[in-house]
Design brief:
The chain is α/β, with parallel strands linked by helices. 46% of the residues lie in helices and 16% in strands. It has 22 helices and 16 strands. It binds pyridoxal-5'-phosphate. Its EC number is 4.2.3.1.
Length: 494
Amino acid sequence: MELQYVSTRDASEVVSASQAILKGLANGGGLFVPTFIPKMDVSLEDLSKMTYQQTAYEVMKLFLTDFTKEELENCINRAYDAKFDTEEIAPLVYADGAYYLELFHGSTIAFKDMALSILPHLMITSARKNQIKNDIVILTATSGDTGKAALAGFAGVEGTKIIVFYPKDGVSPIQKQQMVTQTGDNTLVVGIDGNFDQAQTGVKKMFADEDLKKELDAAGYQFSSANSINIGRLVPQIVYYVYAYSRLLANDKIKAGESINVVVPTGNFGNILAAFYAKNMGLPIAKLICASNENKVLFDFFRTGVYDKNREFILTNSPSMDILISSNLERLIYRIAGEDAKANAALMQSLTTEGRYEITPQMRQALQDFYGNYSSEEETGQTIHDLYEKTGYVIDTHTAVAAGVYGKYKAETGDETPTVIASTASPFKFAKSVMTAIDASYAKEDDFALIDKLSEISRVEVPRAVEEIRSAPVRHKTICAVDQMPQVVRDFLK
Ligand SMILES: *Cc1c(COP(=O)(O)O)cnc(C)c1O
């Protein structure tokens, strides 16, 4: 049976999976969601014998039903190959009472690689299926990790161009260096005078700009999005929750059917939404634990039913989670609103005009599987420090936000359910914050100097992705104001 995708804001906009991947965002600003969440059709025992790639096929075939087996396997095999530094792709590491699902073994050492290494292949395949002649222009706003992972995925891919906007003071030095050294004539990296939300709003405006769309079409281009709102990002992220479960089962850590909890350090709500989809496919997940940093909009939302972005934007040491508008939350809101596009659209309209919305008591009832909490900057540092002292295992700042929240959850509930923590970045990517948390005297040294020290104390080799950028020349120097973004795009595509 063909699975269709519908806009969260307009029940009459229905497309195939490949069309949803190509469009990214629905007309009128809605997000595409599957009309139902398919159930897994292989047993947990069978899954426990599968490789990452085989698991990916079993999950993705249920969502991308207009792809042939050959097409999908081809995409999977091109994505999850030697770009990853381990054959397991996403290994589980046990430390201090939790399983860390390491999602950072791809080419940019952060979890965005899990989806962005496959998205270009899904997109090109989708373009072919839909007889698209235009080149595809990927337009992305990034708070740090998405940008580089998208650049790495799309660089040099024929028939595509990619333009990445980042907040010029809102990413780590290593994140910035990774992006501005990007090679590939089809790539452009631009710093903006503004924060991530402004960058994202600027990109959304361009997607909605009909004049710009016509102009590009005449020149043989069309926009698409690599942001986490694209269904082609979301679906590959479901895979690693299924894989994590099957690894626990294969290694006799749990029995088939036994429930696990997952803890996800959350920004745009894409990663945890994928876990929610996995649960709804039948994977035995009990609690979905949503961890925020000091930008704790989501914690407040789960506590009160009010989503309110009217607050100070805080720059933290977990910059990929410094977000006040969690775009993917809309997919959950749509679902708990009974898949009512009108009700959802009204709430999103209120978010646009008032900066806030409140859900009904009935909708709150449907959120019982979620638990939200946050870690302060101080708690995050303490978590890194204590875990290292206790076990020798070093985690990055984002993962530490999640580990800290897991500690709070356990203290509050006493719940001993086996728990998987999504480990979303390599500590090497945030070497300074991580090393300073371990020992404050490292604060004097710069990120790059600390990388070798981190390697020494963690007994982990310096990742290839970090080695590479140490010597690479800067290729992208453009900085612009938020309102100049469309002009920068026009100039690049001339
Ligand atoms: C993007 C990112 C997150 C947040 O993930 P969302 O899917 O946006 O919630 C957390 N940690 C790291 C390292 C990231 O790059």
